[in-house]
Design brief:
Strand content: 15-25%
Oligomer: single chain
Structural class: alpha+beta
Strand order of the largest sheet: 1-2-6-3-5-4
Number of helices: 17
Helix content: 40-55%
């Protein structure tokens, strides 16, 4: 599978409680492997995740999708653990496991009863160092990946629009390419391509292990040294800076596909949180954009839903979103929607722009700010119920080149944002010359048409 955090879910972080944060400890083994452990003793469970700093961001033209293909191949066995045995061993221990690939990373995870953490480490260390990629297994699995592309993209009109939107918004940056890859690249991909990716990026000095659960930190460190400590590091290729040139004019793309309703997605290039010290006049901007996304689309009472769905009945669905972190240090502030029956895409776009312009003119109310900031506290409470999601946030930040320590400061910086700051980022970034719009022009649906692909899980 491949994944991206839902861009229309308000605020990328569900904040870890400060009490729990005090229990996070970080280590780096001699071979460069990073280990982050958070003790959580509420249940006899452990979540173990291995994150590789290798995703679609690192691919080259002609080999798109190889990061996701390698994720599939990681389940195809080693000399000690034949194909399919990894999943069977975890299931026999009563655990759950899977993996996902994104633009910035690839992650493999297990959730187990705490006494089985050594099993997780043993299996992950084995495939980190000893994966076998045979031509026969690759030939079978690449067909599965192509089927997944058909299922996730070819059969989904909105997915087609979003793929075109990304490639139109980004002209030079790798974020223009789909994580699943282009079909032509998948059709011509070889086992050698997968082996090259594995031998280039799957090394302890390009990985972070995150463990959250009913464990003792020093015991986890001992296990990490036991199973991963002897894996040799590799010299990693230099990662050259890749920056999207400033957009100098509005961009538009129309996708024609069988569908019931039109669909619109529009976005603006905006900054991300930086791993370097930003100038004081810029450091707060990502926080203001996060709050702006919440004001527009935080819940049913947010502006877009209230004004465009409930009051004007102009849209059946509408939203806004922004991811403030990325390894590529590029981001889009996005809005999407589907017009109501009898309404047009043109009317919906005009209404979305009008809401942005109103914020530029009038700012936001204290009530809206209070609601968004209350959502931070609510997210904090929700976070306490999920060891897996706590590990996810740590792993994402570390792999994208930030630090888990960002989780400690983020809520307070978000709460400090003012209406004037929200107005300022809207005026600066949400402008026509910085806007990309992709629309779906629905075509007649063939009632006899069959799906192009089928879903797949490991």
């Amino acid at each position: 599978m491949f994944t991206k955090i839902n861009k229309f879910t308000f605020i990328i972080f569900s904040f870890i409680p400060l009490v729990a944060l005090a229990e996070i400890q970080e280590f780096t083994l001699k071979n460069g492997l990073k280990l982050v452990v958070q003790e959580d003793h509420r249940a006899p469970v452990v979540v173990s995740q291995v994150w590789y700093r290798a995703g679609a961001l690192d691919e080259v033209n002609g080999k798109t999708g190889v990061a996701h293909v390698l994720e599939h191949m990681m389940f195809k066995g080693t000399k000690k653990v034949p194909a399919g045995q990894f999943s069977r061993l975890i299931a026999a221990a009563g655990g759950k496991e899977n993996a996902f690939t994104g633009m910035d990373y690839t992650c493999y995870f297990q959730q187990l009863e705490k006494s089985h953490l050594p099993l997780s480490f043993k299996l992950e260390a084995d495939r980190m160092a000893n994966l076998q990629i045979t031509d026969e297994e690759f030939a079978k699995e690449i067909k599965v990946v192509m089927e997944e592309r058909r299922w996730r993209t070819e059969d989904k009109p909105q997915s087609k629009v979003n793929e075109q939107f990304q490639s139109t918004a980004f002209r030079a940056h790798p974020y223009a390419r789909p994580v699943v890859g282009f079909m032509n690249d998948l059709e011509h991909m070889t086992a050698a391509d997968a082996r090259e990716w594995y031998n280039t990026w799957y090394a302890p000095n390009n990985a972070t292990i995150v463990v959250v659960g009913d464990v003792k930190t020093q015991e986890v460190l001992k296990l990490a040294k036991q199973y991963f400590g002897n894996i040799k590091p590799r010299k990693l290729p230099a990662r050259k800076p890749q920056t999207e040139p400033p957009q100098i004019g509005e961009r538009r793309v129309v996708v024609k596909a069988p569908a019931k309703l039109p669909y619109l997605v529009m976005g603006y290039h905006v900054p991300t949180l930086s791993d370097k010290l930003q100038a004081p006049e810029q450091a707060w901007e990502p926080y203001a954009l996060d709050v702006l996304a919440g004001v527009l689309s935080g819940n049913d009472s947010a502006r877009l839903n209230q004004k465009l769905v409930r009051e004007a009945a102009l849209a059946v669905d509408v939203g806004a979103g922004y991811d403030s972190t990325s390894r590529g240090r590029e981001a889009l502030f996005e809005l999407e929607g589907m017009p109501s029956e009898g309404k047009t895409i043109t009317e919906l776009e005009a209404a979305l722009v009008a809401q942005i312009e109103k914020i530029k003119t009038d700012g936001v109310t204290q009530q809206e700010l209070d609601r968004v900031k209350a959502a931070v506290i609510a997210a904090d409470v929700y976070q306490r119920d999920s060891m897996f999601y706590q590990a996810m946030q740590i792993g994402q930040l570390e792999t994208m080149g930030y630090s888990w320590r960002l989780l400690k400061e983020y809520p307070e910086k978000l709460k400090a944002i003012t209406s004037e700051q929200i107005q300022a980022v809207a005026k600066k970034y949400l402008v026509k010359d910085n806007m990309t719009v992709a629309t779906l022009d629905p075509q007649p649906i063939d009632p006899n048409a069959k799906p192009a692909g089928m879903p797949h899980t490991h």
